[in-house]
Amino acid sequence: MNKLNCLTTLPMTAVIGLTSTLAHAVGIEEIVVTARKAQESLQTTPVAVSALTQEMLIEQQVTELADLRRTAPNLSIMTGGTGPSTLTYMAIRGMAQTSPGGTADAAVGTYIDGVYYARPTGGNVDMFDVAQAEILRGPQGTLFGRNTTGGALNIRTNDPTDSFEGYVKAGVGNYGSHLAEVVVNVPLVDDELAARFAYKSSGHDNYSDYRGYQNSTPGTTLPSGFFHQGLSGGPQEVEKNYVGRAKFRWSPVDQNFTAILGLDWGEFRDTGNGQEVAAINANSPLGLIIGGIGFDPNQFLHQQDYGDTYSVGDTSDIDPNFTNGTYSKRLGTPSGNSRFSGAYLDLDIDLGDYQLKSISAYREMRTTGMVDLDGLPLNLVNFASTYDQEQWSQEFQLSGSLGENLDWIAGLYYFQESSYDLSIGRNFSDLYYADLGTLSGNPAFSGIPFGATGATYLLSSNEGRAQNTSSGAFIQANYRFTDNLRATVGLRYTLDERKVDITSESPIPGQGVPAACKTSVTPDVPGVCSQQKDVDYDYPAWVLSLDYQVNDQLFVYAKTSGASMSGGWNIREGNVPSFAPEDVMDIELGFKSDLLDDTVRLNGAIFWWQAEDQQRLVNAFLPDVQRTTQYVINAGESTATGAELELTWLPLDSLTINANLSLLDVEYDEFETPPPGPGLPPVDRSGENPSHAPELTYSIGATQTLQTGLGELDLHLDYFWVDETWFADDILQPAEYRELYAIPDYGLFNAQATLRTDDGHWEFTLWVRNLADEEYYRSIINFASSVGVANRVIGDPRTYGATVKYSW
Questions:
Q1: How far apart are CA 366 and CA 267, in angstroms?
Q2: Average pLDDT in the chain
Q3: Rounded distance, CA 17 to CA 13, Å?
Q4: I need a labelling partner for 397 at 20 to 30 A (CA). Which of 102, 276, 381, 504 fits?
C-alpha cells in the first residue's frame, strides 16, 4: 500500500509544480472522444479514458486488439490458453471473466463502430484502418449496458470521405512474416455518397522451431513430486489471417440525415499456440503413464534435444510394443480457425432540437481449435472445441438540451444471441488400443484396464446451446450549475432472459459401459445426458458524478457508478454449480491537466471498487466423474484500490514522450471454492489476489522527428513492463499448486523508424518487436492438480521487418 499512497499524492503535486509557463511553438493536440455517447474533449470528460488516434496506433505498433495492453494503465489483455490465437482474456482494474463459452459473459465490453462484440473467442481483432481507440476504465453500465463491470473498449474505424484517396502497403520480416494491405476511398456522388474498402492479409511461419528455451524454468518453486520439462514440440504458431471491410456513407444534400452501412469479414488460421511444458506431476496419471510406455521420466523430461526429438507425431522412440500397428492419432495436431462476418447500419437524423441515432447490427462467428496439453509425442492429454455464435442488436438514442444548462441522452437497446459450444476432452486417447494393463498405482484408474474396453472411461463430450436476450432502457443528463461546475446523473434498467440446452457424456467410475452421463444442471442424477433450463435476471446500472473546471489548465471530477454482469450455467459435466450475476460499485477521483503552454498533458485517477458475487473461471478436477474441467463460480466479495497516471510531454517541437503507470491492490474478501475431493472441506481463498490483476504496470515511449534531405524521419522506441500475474484459479489448496498459475514479470522493448517523402506519397518503415528477445509467457494452461501437466503459452520472440507504403 505504500506505493499506492505515494502515487495518490504525486499527481496533484506535479500539477501544482508545473503551472508555470514555458514558451513553446507547438502544443499537444486536442482529442475528441465519444466515451459518453457524445463528442467531448478528452480533457473535460469525467471518465478515466485513454484515447489513441490513428497516428498513435501506428506509431506504437498496435496491429491487433491485444496490443492495446501496452498503451493504457490497468488494462490486461492475454491471448492463447485452450483456444485459438484470436481468443482474448481481458481485464480492466482487475475485473475479469475469462470463460469463452456462450453461457458466460465478459467483464470488459468491446464495441467497434458502436456494435457490441459479445464473445472473446474472436476478440483479438485486427486493428487496421482504425480512426481511434478508447479504453474506458471502471463500470460503464449506464451508457454501454451490461457486461462492462470492468470497463469498455470503444473503437471506431475510418468512415468514407468525399476524396478519392487510399494506400497500398506491403511488408516482409523474419519467421517468414508477410503483409499486404489495401485501402481505397471512392466518392460515388459528390458530397452525398462515398465508399471505403479495406483489405489486409498477414501471417508468419513457425516461431517454436527457432527457440532455444532451457529445459527448466529458473525462479519457479514446484510442489514436491513435480519436475520441469522443456519446449512442447510441433510446428505451432503458424498464422495466416485475412480481413476485409466495406463502408458506405450516404448524406443527401437536401435531407437531415447520414447513413453509414458497414460490412466486414475475416478468417484467422493458426497451428496452435506455442507452449512450454512447465511441470509434470510424477504422481499423476500422466506421470505414471510416461514410465508405462517405455520412457524413463527423469531422462525424458530433461532431454537436451527434446524440441527436436520429441515432436508431435514422432513415435520413433516409443516402445515398439506400443506402436505395433494399432497406434493412431485421435485429434491431430494443434490448430485454430476463426471465421467471422457482420453488417451494421448507423443512422443519424437531425430533428432540429433533438438528435436521433439508430444502430442495427448482425454478426456471426465460428471458431474451432485443438490444443495438445501434454507436449509428448503421443496425444495423451488434449482438448478440442467449437464455438458457433450469431447475434443481432438494435439501439436507439435520442439526445437534446433543455435550456442552456441541461443536456441529456436517452435510449433503448435490444440484443439477441444464439450460440453452440462443443468441447471434447480426451485424456490418454492414444492409449485406446494399447494393452498396457492396469495402472493400479493411481486411484483415478484403479481397476480400469486400458484398451478397447476401458476407452469409454477416458472420453468426455459437452454441448451447450444457448439463447440469450437482453433489453434495456437508459437516460443520462448533465446539469451545469455554473460555467465551471457540472453534475451528471444516469440510470439504466436491464432485463436478461437466458435459456440453455446442455448435453454431456462423461465417464463415471462404477456406472458401467457405455459411459454414464451427468450434466451440470443434474449433478446428482447419473444417466441424465441432457437438460434444459431458463432464467431471468434484472438489474440497474447507475452513475453520479461532479466535475469542476478549476482553470484553463486543470479539470477535476468525482464519480461513483454501478454495473452488473449476467449470470448463467456452466455447460461442463459433473457437479458444477450455476453462477449468479456479478454486481460492482466504484468510487473514482480524477484530474486532467494541460500544462506549460499545452506541452505537458498529465491525467490521473485513484479508485476503489467492491464486487459482490464476482465471477471467476477456475480449473478443477471433478472426483465424481474423474474429469478435468473449467467452470465459472462466484467469489463472495472482492475489493480493490488503485491509481493511474498518463503523461504526454513535448520537451521539444520534434520530440514527444508518452508514459503511463498503474498500481492495483485487489484481493478476495470472501471466496470459498468447492471441496477438492470427497470428504474434504471447501478451500477458503479469502485474502488471495485474483487473476489478471498485476500490482504494477507501466510503459514509456519516445518519438523523435527529424528533417532529412529525403523527407521526414520518425524514430520511435517504447518499453512496457508488467508485474507477476496470476492467470487463473484452482479449487485445490493454493500453497500446493497456485505457483504454477503465475506468469513471471517481464518487460518488452519495441522500436520503429519511418521515413515519409516530402511529396506525401511514399513511406518506408523498419520495425522490431521484443527488441531484447525477452522470454516471457502469454497465458497458462494448468491441469497439474488432476491429469498432471502445467503448460505456459510462450510469448512471441524478437520479430523484425520492413514495410513500404504508397498513398494518394
A1: 10
A2: 80
A3: 6
A4: 102
Eight-class DSSP state of 31: -
Report whether 193 contacts 248 (CB < 8 A). Answer: yes
CA angle 345, 350, 352 (to 5 degrees): 160
**Which pLDDT belongs to residue 13?**
40
In the three-class reduction of DSSP (H, G, I as helix; E, B as strand; rest coil), residue 671 is classed as coil
Specify whether the CB–CB gap between 115 and 359 falls below 8 A: yes
Strands 554-565 and 165-173: unpaired
For the chain, what's the residue count? 808
Helix or strand (DSSP H, E) at 300: helix 297-300
- Under DSSP, is residue 66 helix (H, G, I), strand (E, B) or coil? helix
What is the rounded distance in angstroms from the CA atom of residue 600 to the CA atom of residue 18? 9
Give the span between the Cα atoms of 422 and 460, in whole angstroms.
11
Angle at 116 between CA 113 and CA 117, to 5 degrees: 105
DSSP 8-class letter at 126: B
* Three-state secondary-structure class, residue 62: coil
Residue 522 has pLDDT above 70, yes or no: no
* Prediction pTM value: 0.86
Q: Sheet with 115-117: list strands edge to edge.
A: 49-53, 130-137, 151-157, 108-112, 115-117
pLDDT for the residue 575: 55
The amino acid occupying position 409 is I
Q: Which residues pair with 702 in a beta bridge?
A: 657, 717
pLDDT tier at 288, thresholds 50, 70, 90: low
d(CA 307, CA 787): 22
Q: How confident is the model at residue 622 (pLDDT cuts 50, 70, 90)?
A: low
Distance separating alpha carbons of residues 620 and 109, to the nearest angstrom: 27
Eight-class DSSP state of 287 = H
Angstrom distance (rounded) from CA 93 to CA 75 = 7
Distance CA 715, CA 131 (A): 22
Set of cell numbers at residue 515: 459411459
Say what the alpha-carbon torsion angle 169, 170, 173, 175 is, to the nearest 10 degrees.
120
Q: Which pLDDT value is given to residue 335? A: 75
Which residue pairs from 64-67 have beta carbons closer than 8 angstroms and sit at least 24 positions apart in sequence? 64/124, 64/125, 64/126, 64/127, 65/110, 65/123, 65/124, 65/125, 65/127, 65/153, 65/155, 66/124, 67/127
**CATH at 682:** 2.40.170.20
Q: Can you name the residues that pair with 548 across neighbouring β-strands?
A: 485, 556
SS3 127: coil
User: How confident is the model at residue 80, as a pLDDT?
Assistant: 74
**How far is CA 778 from each of CA 73, 268, 276, rounded to the nearest angstrom?**
18, 19, 11
Count of domains for the chain? 1
Model confidence pLDDT, tens digit, residues 374-393? 655 555 677 778 889 999 99
pLDDT tens profile 228-281: 333 343 455 678 999 999 999 999 988 899 999 999 999 988 877 777 766 666
Strand-pairing partners, residue 619, are 630, 730
Of 484, 488, 432, 423, which is closest to residue 628 (Cα–Cα)?
423
- Phi/psi of residue 704, nearest 5 degrees: -110, 125
Neighbouring C-beta atoms of residue 524, cutoff 10 Å? 8
pLDDT at position 436 over 80 = no
List the domain range (segments joined by +) for residue 398.
2-807
Strand-by-strand arrangement of the 88-92 sheet: 75-79, 88-92, 95-96
The DSSP-derived string for 221-237 is ---TTEE---B--SS--
Distance (Å, whole) CA 3 – CA 5: 6
Instruction: Tell me what the mean pLDDT of segment 327-352 comes to.
Output: 76
Can you spell out the DSSP letters for 144-175? H-SS-SSEEEEEEEPPP-SS-EEEEEEEEEST
